[in-house]
Every structure is written in structure tokens, then in C-alpha cells.
Amino acid sequence: MALTKRQKQVLDFIAGFLDENGYCPSFEEIAKGLQLASLATVHKHISVLESKSYLKRGFNKSRSLELTAKYVAEPRRGRPPALEIPLRGRIAAGEPVESVEQREVLNLADFAGNADTFALEVRGNSMIEDHICDGDVILLERVAEARDGEIVVALVSGAETTLKRIYREPGDMVRLQPANAMLKPKLISAAEVQIQGRLLAVLRKYK
After folding, report:
1. Where does 5-72 sit in CATH, by number?
2. Residue 164 annotated as catalytic
3. Which run of H or of E encompasses 164?
4. How confident is the model over 14-24, as pLDDT tens digits?
5. Which fold has domain 117-203?
6. Residues 6 or more apart in contact with residue 145 via CB below 8 angstroms
7. Cα 191 to Cα 62: distance, rounded to the nearest angstrom
8. Mean pLDDT over residues 140-154, rounded?
9. In the chain, N or C terminus with fewer CB closer than 10 Å?
10. Of residues 5, 38, 44, 164, which has the active-site annotation?
11. Is 62 known to be catalytic?
12. Where are the domains of the chain?
């Protein structure tokens, strides 16, 4: 049975509230969050979602709503992925700048919507001077070629993968250049190096 737009909103609100708080919302919180006119309206939507097997509700218990396997198995039903983040302006990391409200968005579709995009978690600090640190997550575009100076994931001798800047050198050689003054570059035969991806972005979580 198909869901109405409002029923999808109720389900998505419950799922979001549960993810954020670790427990289900009350009927009052659902009504407030979705600006519904009355608790009776919330009760009606909950009852319909139960009948359609998207929700389960414990008898005579507070905050007893539970999302069913049917909802979990259809995570994108009525909920397109959030590929845009509001870009509110610019923030000074040096001299202060004038704060100006902007109405722009940062569109992530170029990353998340591309089947050739993949992610890796960084281990080690060989690229630390390019501000890529141990534990960072990097987004890469799956490519087989790259320009000199680009940061790539390279497979060396069919066994070892590494994140480095790549440069072509005379004699059909490739230089894999770290961004760490403590480390030396590697000079390897081009035949032994296979480019697997090119760096697109670096993600770092602080909590």
C-alpha cells in the first residue's frame, strides 16, 4: 500500500528523532515537529502506518513506537539523499572578514551521485603537509591516469597501495612524492605503478 506524503513525513520524522536522541518521539513531539493540528491527527497517521506494517507500537506504553523491517528495507522511499548543504558564507581563519549572509548551497551530488567516487580512510602521515592526516577520510575519483602533481592512490607492483603526488620522470620512471619532510620520494618504473584514483576531497570529523 502506497504512503501519502504526510505519512512519509511522519515516518521520516520518527526515524530522524530516533537517530538523534536514541528513543522514540512522543505524540506531542511529533505534532510539534510536523506542525500537526492535534494529537488525534498524529494518532490517525500512526494507526495507518501500523496497518501498513511500517510501525509497531507497544500496548499502553509511552514512547513505544518502533520502525519495522519494512521501513528499514526501504530507506530511500520518499526521502531523496541530502546532497545539498547550506553555504552560509565565509569564516576568517586569519584576519577577521566582514560577515555577509549568503544564500548558496554546497552541492555534494558531484561526489555522492557519481558511481566512480569512492572513499578510503587514511593511515599514516606521509601527506600531512598537504593537510591529509591519519584517520581522515578521503574521497577519490576512480581514474587510470592523472596529471603530474595530482594526489593519487597508486598500486605499486600489484601489492602495495599508497597515497602520494605523482610525477613522470625520464627513463619511463614515476616519482611518488610524499608531503612530509621526514620521508623520501619513491622512484619506480612506470610499468610497476597503476593509478587507481585521484583525490577529490578530504573529510575530517572532530567528534
Report:
1. 1.10.10.10
2. yes
3. strand 160-169
4. 888 887 777 88
5. Umud Fragment, subunit A (2.10.109)
6. 195
7. 66
8. 93
9. C
10. 164
11. no
12. 5-72, 117-203
